[in-house]
Amino acid sequence: MIRMLLRVLGHEYARPVRRTVALMTMTAVAEGLSCALLVPVLRALFGSTPADAWPWLVAFGAAVAVYAVLRYRSDLSGFLVGTTLLRGMYHRLGDHLARLPVGWYDARRVGEVSVLAGQGVLQAMSVIAHLLAPFVSACVTPLTIVAVMIAFNWQLGLAALAAAPVVAAIQIWAGRSTAAADAERHDRDREAAGRVVEYLQAQPMLRVGGRTAERFRLLDDSLRGLQRAYRRTLLSALPGVVGLTLTVQAVFTVLLVLGAHLALGGSAGAAEVLSILVLAARCADPLLVLSDIAGKIRGARSELAGLDAVLRTEPLPEAPEPVRPVGRGLEFESVVFRHGRRTVIDGLSLSVPEGERLAVVGPSGAGKSTLLQLIARFYDVDAGVVRVGGADVRAIGTEVLMEQIAIVFQEVYLFDGTIEENVRLGRPDAGEAEVRAAAAAARLDEVIERLPGGWAANVGEGGALLSGGERQRVSIARALLKNAPIVLLDEVTSALDPVNEAAVHEGIERLMAGRTVVMVAHRMRTVRRADRIVFLDGGRIVEEGGHDELLRRGGRYADFWNVSMAPAASE
Ligand SMILES: Nc1ncnc2c1ncn2[C@@H]1O[C@H](COP(=O)(O)OP(=O)(O)OP(=O)(O)O)[C@@H](O)[C@H]1O
């Protein structure tokens, strides 16, 4: 467990963790010794000369004092190291998530990572702060007490020691028999978290479908599965708990019978037997909590394994000696890209000279958005090369590549902050005048004037307080502020009201001016702005040329526009 913890966190934490474990072990030994000193104290007190108890009482008091100091220091150390590890873990996870390919994040992963980052990290890090001390105490204190028991009365001591391998065997067996149930519960936990995220995101669709009161079957099924998994985990842990309790009771009974036998035979004093039985009872307490702690440690371990798996996900490799793009042209050379076993881009070659506006059209699922994502290196291609400014995107440093590209997505995400903060994301170090100019060019200034609070108005979580068109204007202002030489546009497909539509188009027109543009186009108005059009189907270019030329050709593009976009042609 500790080894796994250090692998996940990094070995720079090895020293404080080892120091804490050593301190906890010393504390447990001191606890055992202070308990064990009760034997000579009680033996002397109930013996013929009670005054002999004094030196033992002093030793007992000193041992308790040492134990108290050590306990304070080890608890403090566990807490401090635990919080340091927690902070370290959050940093490590945050840094790593920021380097993972954007394409890695889907709804399932978002649910999984939010559970991991919330309860998973806390649970995994609680090992040092809360679980390790009782675990070490449950293992070391009884062994120390047994060692002292052997010193005072070897028969009773050995009888108690016989319990050690039985307890260890029960723990190992319990760990193995609950492993499958633990793993299943963990999987169910993640699945349920993903379903909750999906359920929340699907609210508009569920309500439009009139399913306001009805529950979401997929979420229900997954929560029921989770409940079953929890029940199985509890049932599978039960034999271990019962076995441990029975073992402790059996050993105590053996000690009682053996103690009575020795006392009656005269080979041990009644006070000695009594005090050893008190010690045996003292051993039982930590042993009985052992199964509970071990269960919690197993839970923390599976969270740690989840964190380990995320941290082992490879980020897209960075070139050891990054190159800088020269110019603003784009090129796809025999590019193949797959999602799982599905080929989404199939041997596509295309070049977009500097300053050209290229529209990509085609049926849904043709791979249009994927084409944009490959330019921005959200994923790496499976074969072929994508070049920006003549350089393979894999050879350009991520930051430099991102400097070259401004993207306006179909779905605009705004952070819960002010409009100004959201626009500034385009270029955080931009001056006030630049931010204002970008907002004006995107016709966002009209929106800001209307909002109570103006620039300081809060946009709400995900930009919920703005309309779709207003959010698009924020995203265009961001892109304008970034002032990157290459613009990628994934056109808004939902209808905007006429005022917003005109504003968005005006903003986009300004954004495209003098830049290399690749736009996924769904509307005639957008396509007409392009210098060239490629028609994509099944990840391949089926036709390419100018709008009028393609219409005249009467091929796939003409069919597509005549059939599916007929209403738009009247724009
Ligand atoms: N994360 C993903 N995992 C698996 N398959 C995916 C993923 N993202 C996209 N795909 C698949 O890749 C194919 C191309 O998707 P893409 O979004 O590029 O199409 P598109 O032409 O932009 O479609 P639309 O016009 O409907 O947005 C689709 O079949 C889609 O199902």
UniProtKB/TrEMBL annotation:
Q: Which organism is it from?
A: Planomonospora venezuelensis
User: Which ranges does the record mark as transmembrane?
Assistant: 21-41, 53-70, 131-152, 158-175, 234-256
What topology does the record note for this protein and the membrane? Multi-pass membrane protein
Q: Which family does it belong to?
A: Belongs to the ABC transporter superfamily. Siderophore-Fe(3+) uptake transporter (SIUT) (TC 3.A.1.21) family.
* PROSITE patterns per record: ABC_TM1F (PS50929), ABC_TRANSPORTER_1 (PS00211), ABC_TRANSPORTER_2 (PS50893)
Q: Which UniProt keywords apply?
A: ATP-binding, Cell inner membrane, Cell membrane, Membrane, Nucleotide-binding, Transmembrane, Transmembrane helix, Transport
Where's the ABC transporter domain? 330-563
Q: Give the top-rank taxon of the lineage listed in the UniProt record for this protein.
A: Bacteria
Query: What is the official name of this protein in its record?
Result: ATP-binding cassette subfamily B protein
Primary localisation category? membrane
GO molecular function list: ABC-type transporter activity; ATP binding; ATP hydrolysis activity; ATPase-coupled lipid transmembrane transporter activity
Q: ABC transmembrane type-1 domain: which residues?
A: 21-299
Signal peptide range equals: none
Q: Name one Pfam family in it.
A: ABC_membrane
GO annotation, cellular component aspect: plasma membrane
Q: Where in the cell is it found?
A: Cell inner membrane
